[in-house]
Specification:
With 312 residues, this protein is of the alpha+beta class. It is built from nine helices and 13 strands. β8 and β9 form a beta hairpin. Keywords: Autocatalytic cleavage, Hydrolase, Protease.
Length: 312
């Protein structure tokens, strides 16, 4: 049987083990495992990689433990604004930005890819498209959690978008969720979803819904989903750069990912990481931060769930 594999992430950054209770760590690891298994089941049943990454990301969006969907952070106006992107290895792609009333933004991004002539829709227009294609209006109350409200209140009166003190194990984590997969037919796919950053203003959009920055997939090469400080990942076109190094320099997935994440990105202050899978099903996690919520099922069927960088 041809190789197939999947990897997921739930954000990267300063994840402090001394503030992580055993019960919380167990809950986070459980959700990561459920998500990666949901995607892997699609692959084992002969499904496509694009459907596998959607299945995995939807589980993460439905969990309050990650900054996407249900667990999204709040803007300065105490609202949720979410971004998502999906890309197929055949260069099809769909993305949405600044949506407020869609339970699973990744499902909407998938529909943009499949049912529109466009790649990226935003705000009211994205939601108009959503409701015309059967997505249900979801009240903001669904997304509200006490944890995210407390995070916002801690910095709302400042111009900051990151907490100066972490009151939660991952308050200083750059929250994104994502998945990459290779299916039995050689198709690669990547998906990324996020609630953005706490206290954001002006309709800010990061790297997650941008092809070549936070998300990229190319059959015969690699699929990538990023998690980190979006502005830096945008400036360095991180996922496109990794793919280009593999395509033109012939670097393997590990070498290319590490060169970008540990190189100029890190030097300019771009904290975070990527998950990647190549056309042979080889998985690599690269991070220059203390931790990354992540899980994978490799081409041998081995399940791995990890949080901290030292356990890579």
């Amino acid at each position: 049987m041809p190789p197939f594999s999947i990897a997921i992430h739930g954000g990267a950054g300063t994840i402090l083990p001394e503030q992580m209770s055993a019960s919380l760590q167990s809950a986070i690891e459980h959700d990561l495992e459920v998500a990666v298994k949901a995607g892997y089941q699609v692959l084992t049943q002969g499904g496509l990689s694009v459907d596998a990454v959607v299945a995995a990301v939807k589980v993460l969006e439905d969990s309050p433990h990650f900054n996407a969907g249900k667990g999204s952070v709040l803007t300065h106006k105490e609202m949720v604004e979410m971004d998502a992107c999906i890309m197929n290895g055949n260069s099809e792609a769909g993305a949405v930005a600044c949506v407020r009333h869609i339970k699973n933004p990744i499902a909407l991004a998938y529909d943009v890819m499949q049912q529109s002539q466009h790649v990226l829709l935003m705000g009211d227009g994205a939601e108009e498209f959503a409701f015309q294609h059967g997505h249900i209006f979801t009240e903001q109350d669904y997304f509200f959690t006490d944890r995210r409200y407390e995070q916002l209140m801690a910095i709302k009166d400042s111009n900051s978008v990151a907490l100066s003190e972490a009151n939660y194990p991952d308050d200083d984590k750059h929250g994104t969720v994502g998945a990459v997969a290779l299916d039995q037919y050689g198709n690669l796919a990547a998906a990324t979803s996020t609630g953005g950053i706490t206290n954001k203003k002006y309709g800010r959009v990061g790297d997650s819904p941008i092809i070549g920055a936070g998300t990229f997939a190319e059959n015969g090469n690699v699929a990538i989903s990023a998690a980190g400080v979006g502005e830096f990942f945008l400036r360095k076109a991180v996922s496109a750069d990794i793919a280009a190094r593999m395509r033109y320099l012939g670097e393997n997935v590990q070498t290319a990912c590490e060169a970008v994440i540990q190189g100029e990105l890190k030097e300019m202050g771009g904290e975070g990481g990527v998950i990647a899978v190549d056309c042979q099903g080889e998985i690599h996690f690269a991070l220059n931060s203390i931790g990354m919520y992540r899980a994978s099922v490799d081409k041998s069927g081995q399940l791995n769930v990890k949080i901290y960088a030292e356990k890579t």
